[in-house]
Specification:
439 residues; mainly alpha; Growth Hormone, Chain: A; two-stranded antiparallel ribbon; 17 helices; 2 strands; membrane; MFS transporter
């Protein structure tokens, strides 16, 4: 076989990687003397996962994140089935949400200070024990107060989505285009888990036994966090107290109005979910509601390919306009029109969340990124609770359940007004900020 031809090298010009091509000979395949150039992929997502360790921590994160869409549905199903009370089931889940709002920022602060693996694993173990305790209490029909205590213990569940975003920020510091793509992927993953989690939980509870959704969700959560935490090469270094800014992040410049926008945005999601469930009121409610997450997931992936975000105000304006479509679809009396309205309305969700999370990363001091993103998630959860209650009250007291969709429309408009009035994300002088990605 002829020897490989030499290629000139230059210290100032990197040479393309060459790969040998194969030719067929009577004795079988053999290396040909010609070589072809292999170019790096133009797909930003393929480049994203070309970094060593990124696929492994993403797999673990997806396993850990999927139960986040399972636990609430599973809890409602098994408590309502055992105790015959949806009011009790709703009160227990609301208690867990309130406990999470209090505990999650503190857990995130510990993650930033001591490292992801060191804090996330024991915090997850405690949360899993809470889920298992809730399962046993329901199975043996323990007193109602025990359900609240057990479910409150699950509040130590770490924000795996925030930890994953922190890893991307660490790996792509100084590369805003790649970080934008990573944030878009993470938001699409959120929507995918939101879409699949409730469906999987309902199927497991119906096909196996009422506690199956909670049990399998707990196993997935612990397994995913263990896989995620094992990837130490991509973990951002801890930031001890002495090297981080002191004080509450809520008082950081621009953070309070941004959290207000997240609160109103969360109300959009909560109101839209309850309005859809109340209006459809049947087995089709879940699949129709999942179309909103599907639209958001698709839009998030497309948005991530651009490598550049736009102003948060523009995203919120688009969301405020598109959130009128579910109301119009429901008003027509056609489930097909409602489904189409939810699908299109969801396409504004992921770009809004990607841009908002990018702003959180910009406003958060170094070494406190997990805490900052957990505060944003906490604001979203609070908004979801408010939006759910508002839409539920409207569905019960308005002439028709169609009017419940107006709660999500009004919440989107409120988020836009808050963003515009407080100039969230705008540079101080109104001009472009150096190094900004347009968020």
């Amino acid at each position: 076989m002829p020897s490989r031809p030499s290629t000139p090298s230059s210290p100032s010009m990197p040479q393309p990687r060459l790969a040998p091509s194969l030719t067929l000979t009577p004795a079988g395949p053999a290396l040909a003397p010609r070589y072809r150039e292999t170019r790096p992929s133009t797909n930003p997502y393929l480049r994203l996962f070309a970094l060593p360790g990124t696929r492994a921590f993403t797999l673990g994160n997806l396993l850990a994140r999927l139960p986040m869409g399972m636990f609430s549905v599973s809890t409602v199903i098994m408590i309502a089935g055992a105790y015959g009370s949806y009011a009790l089931a709703g009160a227990v889940t609301a208690t867990g949400l309130a406990a999470t709002a209090l505990v999650a920022p503190r857990t995130a602060r510990l993650v930033d200070r001591y490292g992801q693996a060191r804090v996330a694993v024991p915090a997850t173990a405690l949360a899993v024990l809470g889920s298992l305790a809730l399962l046993l209490c329901v199975h043996y029909e323990a007193p109602a107060w025990s359900l609240f205590v057990a479910y409150a213990a699950t509040a130590t569940t770490p924000n795996t989505g925030g930890m994953s975003r922190a890893r991307w920020a660490h790996l792509h510091r100084g590369d805003p285009a790649s970080l934008h793509t990573a944030n878009a992927f993470e938001q699409a993953a959120d929507e995918l888990c939101f879409m699949l989690g409730p469906v999987l939980a309902a199927f497991l509870c119906a096909a196996l036994f009422p506690e199956a959704g909670t049990l399998i969700g707990a196993v997935l959560l612990l397994t995913g966090v263990l896989v995620f935490a094992a990837q130490r090469a991509t973990e951002p270094p801890p930031a001890p107290r002495a090297t981080t800014a002191a004080g509450s992040l809520v008082r950081a410049t621009g953070m309070t109005p941004l959290l207000g926008v997240f609160l109103a945005t969360g109300a959009v999601f909560g109101a839209l979910e309850v309005a859809t469930l109340a209006h459809v009121d049947g087995p089709l409610a879940g699949p129709i509601l999942a179309l909103q997450a599907a639209g958001s997931c698709a839009a998030g992936l497309v948005y991530g390919r651009t490598g550049r975000s736009v102003r948060l105000r523009s995203c919120l304006a688009a969301m405020a306009c598109l959130m009128t479509l579910p109301f119009l679809g429901a008003s027509s009396g056609s489930l097909l029109a409602l489904a189409a309205g939810l699908l299109v309305a969801g396409m504004a969700t992921a770009p809004t969340m990607v841009t908002g999370m990018s702003l959180v990363q910009r406003l958060t001091p170094p070494g406190r990124l997990n805490e900052g993103m957990t505060l944003a998630v906490t604001a979203l959860l609070g908004g979801i609770a408010v939006g759910s209650a508002t839409a539920g009250w409207t569905a019960d007291h308005a002439p028709t359940t169609t009017y419940a969709f107006l709660a999500s429309t009004a919440s989107a408009a409120l988020a836009l007004v808050l963003c515009t009035a407080t100039r969230v994300g705008a540079p101080p002088d109104g001009g472009p900020r150096a190094g900004s990605t347009g968020a």
